[in-house]
């Protein structure tokens, strides 16, 4: 499983930022960032993660869980998902519904 440090490093290198550049832009110690990236410090604070996410311009979930969102859900979609979850619809049922809708559209 990828660590937060590995995800930060991957995004940093993808954005062609040096360790020093990211540390300075985020306002964190270069040595601390280096320790996180090398998994010496494997449990960074939420404040650190928030600074990294903001500076790298990625959702916090990308750093915590490796999830990447092209665009965040708007309030209406978020409400619909929450209502579906509250009503007991599970992920598989939702996937089945989407597949059925795709099939129906192509008929």
Automatic annotation (TrEMBL):
Residues 64-102 form the Sin domain. GO terms for cellular component: cytosol. Keywords: DNA-binding. It holds the Pfam family HTH_3. The keyword Coiled coil does not apply. Residues 8-63 form the HTH cro/C1-type domain. It comes from the Bacteria. SUPFAM superfamilies: lambda repressor-like DNA-binding domains, SinR repressor dimerisation domain-like. InterPro entries: Cro/C1-type_HTH (IPR001387), Lambda_DNA-bd_dom_sf (IPR010982), SinR/SinI_dimer_dom (IPR010981), SinR/SinI_dimer_dom_sf (IPR036281), TransReg_Diox_bact_type (IPR050807). The keyword Aminoacyl-tRNA synthetase does not apply. This is Helix-turn-helix domain-containing protein.
């Amino acid at each position: 499983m990828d660590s937060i440090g590995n995800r930060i490093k991957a995004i940093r290198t993808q954005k062609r930022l040096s360790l020093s550049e990211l540390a300075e832009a985020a306002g964190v110690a270069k040595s601390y960032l280096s320790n996180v990236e090398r998994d010496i410090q494997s449990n960074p604070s939420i404040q650190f993660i928030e600074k990294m996410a903001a500076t790298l311009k990625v959702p916090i979930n990308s750093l915590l869980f490796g999830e990447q969102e092209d665009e965040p859900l708007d309030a209406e979609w978020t409400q619909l998902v929450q209502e579906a979850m509250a009503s007991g619809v599970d992920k598989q049922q939702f996937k089945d519904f989407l597949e059925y809708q795709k099939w129906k559209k192509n008929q």
